[in-house]
């Protein structure tokens, strides 16, 4: 028998709607006025709630921008756990990051959001901390999948550098190429540029 998802009750639906209204209002105001020019009170008034209600849903201004962050950890773990047979962990994480985190890079709305984050130090730092906090869960998923101890340092390193690959890519002219370069390193190990060039020339000659 397949599992069925129970519909949300009225109270849960109302809470979810309020949370979404707050996140939407915050992002709209931040884009219109700039992050530093918008107060918590401005956001609460735009969503027609009290500041007390806002703080019941979000701990502060930064969290309003990263409302979907709670979904990312489950998706990262699933990318490892549910990958196809024969697909390596680095390859599965590469696919996930390219598809889910860089696939919207050409969307104008996403471009405005990304510009807001990257041009606001408080948001940029908060976003990095929020993203990297998934490291422990991802490392544990990798360890479980490979049969390694839960605190295995190699699994922790793979999780850390896989997450950092996206951070690196966001500052590059070609983010996809940056992600690929990082995961090529995770998959195949370091090769100096001269050795990579020699190998590529040898392949061309074949």
Automatic annotation (TrEMBL):
Positions of the HTH tetR-type domain: 16-76
Superkingdom of origin: Bacteria
Ranges of the DNA-binding region feature: 39-58
GO molecular function annotation: DNA-binding transcription factor activity; transcription cis-regulatory region binding
Keywords: DNA-binding, Transcription, Transcription regulation
Pfam families per the UniProt record, alphabetical: TetR_C_14, TetR_N
UniProt-recorded name of the protein: Putative TetR family transcriptional regulator
């Amino acid at each position: 028998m397949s599992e069925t998802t129970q519909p949300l009750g009225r109270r849960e639906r109302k809470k979810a709607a309020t949370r979404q209204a707050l996140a939407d209002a915050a992002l709209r105001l931040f884009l219109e006025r700039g992050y530093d020019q918008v107060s918590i009170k401005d956001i609460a008034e735009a969503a027609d709630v009290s500041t007390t209600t806002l703080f019941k849903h979000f701990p502060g201004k930064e969290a309003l921008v990263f409302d979907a962050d709670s979904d990312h950890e489950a998706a990262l773990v699933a990318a490892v756990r549910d990958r196809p047979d024969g697909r390596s962990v680095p390859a599965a994480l590469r696919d996930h990051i390219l598809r889910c985190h860089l696939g919207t890079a050409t969307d104008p709305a996403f471009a405005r959001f990304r510009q807001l984050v990257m041009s606001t130090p408080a948001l940029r730092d908060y976003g990095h901390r929020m993203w990297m906090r998934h490291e422990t869960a991802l490392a544990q998923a990798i360890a479980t999948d490979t049969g390694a101890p839960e605190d295995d340092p190699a699994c922790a390193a793979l999780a850390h550098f896989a997450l950092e690959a996206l951070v690196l890519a966001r500052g590059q002219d070609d983010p996809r190429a940056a992600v690929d370069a990082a995961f090529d390193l995770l998959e195949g190990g370091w090769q100096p540029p001269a050795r990579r060039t020699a190998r590529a020339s040898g392949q061309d000659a074949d």
